[in-house]
Amino acid sequence: MTQRSHRPLLLVFAILFTILFCYVCPALMQQEDTIMAAAGDAAAAASDRIANRHPQYLVLNASNFVDIKSNSSLQLAKFSVAAWFRTSEDYHHGSDTNHHFIVNKGGSGQERPGYNMNYGIWIDNKERLKGGFESLTGEDNFVVSPASYNDGKWHYAVLTFDGRTINLYVDGTKVASKSTTATPDYTGIQPVSIGVNSLTINGFFIGGVDEVRIWNRALSDQEVKDQHSSSNSGSGNFAGDGDNNFAKEIPTDLPLSYQRSNSAAFDARGLVLYLSFNS
Questions:
Q1: pLDDT band, residue 170 (cuts 50/70/90)
Q2: Could you tell me where the beta strands, DSSP code E, fall in the chain?
Q3: Strand 100-105 vs strand 119-123: parallel, antiparallel, or unpaired?
């Protein structure tokens, strides 16, 4: 009887082992490395999310801004306009009428019906906070803060007009007031603009803006004080990328539970616009 040799079979096993060692094992090791790297990235991302829990805000750098298209609910004879802002910019340039707009509708630059400022809050070239409106004839009805606010800190600005008196508040305290019989020019269809002149592309504000709200009524002194005391927008080391896609309009019957800040302080009655700048 002739015994068959096992050498061919052993040779086949040797070839298969070589292929396995040279090609399959490295692929498995690479896959394991990829899985470990992905796990590490996920852990790092989770850590970043935990460390960066503060809400975002709008970063303005003189090349970006936010426009909200006009509609009848934003064209106001009586109003309150509120926003958190922060800047360290040196605005000591230009004329005394220079505007660096935090928020405004109608803008400035023309003195004819439909092209006047309906309402606005801005920083002037002395770093003071100013606010007010223009009438149909272009008459200025402005108030100005005694102090300047380019200290790099967050401040809460509120401008109100009840049909008789313009009030300007900073951090819950009334800093300027003016009585007037004038009526705002609310006939214009310019947008509500954040960080730029609503009428034309100038008057840039440089810094941070957050929590912009507009009401179709005048807030009371106590409401403004309570809002500043309860809001969490003006503190903390916020992170934001300046994306302009956060803006959103809201209905006037918005429930209080929608408010990011203390809903008891932010009464939604008459609220016609809320920009949270959250991603």
A1: very high
A2: 58-61, 66-68, 79-86, 100-105, 119-123, 128-134, 140-148, 155-161, 165-170, 173-179, 192-194, 206-215, 271-275
A3: antiparallel
